[in-house]
Specification:
Strand content: 5-15%
Order of helices and strands: HHEEHHHH
Distance between the termini: 44 Å
Largest sheet: 2 strands, antiparallel
Number of helices: 6
Radius of gyration: 16 Å
Number of strands: 2
Strand order of the largest sheet: 1-2
């Protein structure tokens, strides 16, 4: 169990050199070769602070492996993708919606047909977070 204020996810010790870092993340299967933002403890904490839920809060099980999607683990991925902390509550809402049984994310993730989830963000939240839509 993590100490208060400490990340509960496994910690990787990565090189400081950005080229070596991307190579290591690629070799470890954490990127498809596109650039990622290193998910430092400070960046993940800032992302978690962008929502009203504690880091350990479980959103659900993510198909197809059934891995636990906690706020902290979603924050790790959001940091790597370049998400802004202001956007993070929208990411959580999208994941919550996709984990609803009627969405059938397992079927989408395991089909042999070319499909992918699509998230359309509109309404007051789009303006509140100043999401680029032009």
């Amino acid at each position: 169990m993590a100490q208060p204020g400490q990340p509960s996810a496994d910690t990787l010790y990565l090189p400081d050199d950005i080229g070596e870092l991307f190579t290591r993340l690629y070799e470890d299967g954490m990127t498809d070769g596109l650039p990622v933002i290193p998910p430092t403890a400070e960046r993940v904490a800032a992302m978690v602070a962008g929502c009203r839920l504690p880091a350990a809060h479980v959103i659900g099980e993510m198909p197809p492996r059934g891995a636990i999607a906690s706020v902290e683990k979603l924050a790790l991925n959001a940091v790597m993708a370049g998400c802004l902390p202001d956007y993070f509550p929208v990411v959580i809402a999208a994941v919550e919606a996709m984990l609803q049984p009627q969405f059938n994310l397992l079927g989408i993730q395991t089909t042999t047909n070319p499909v992918a989830p699509f998230v359309l963000i509109n309404g007051p939240v789009r303006k509140l977070i100043d999401l680029n839509c032009g």
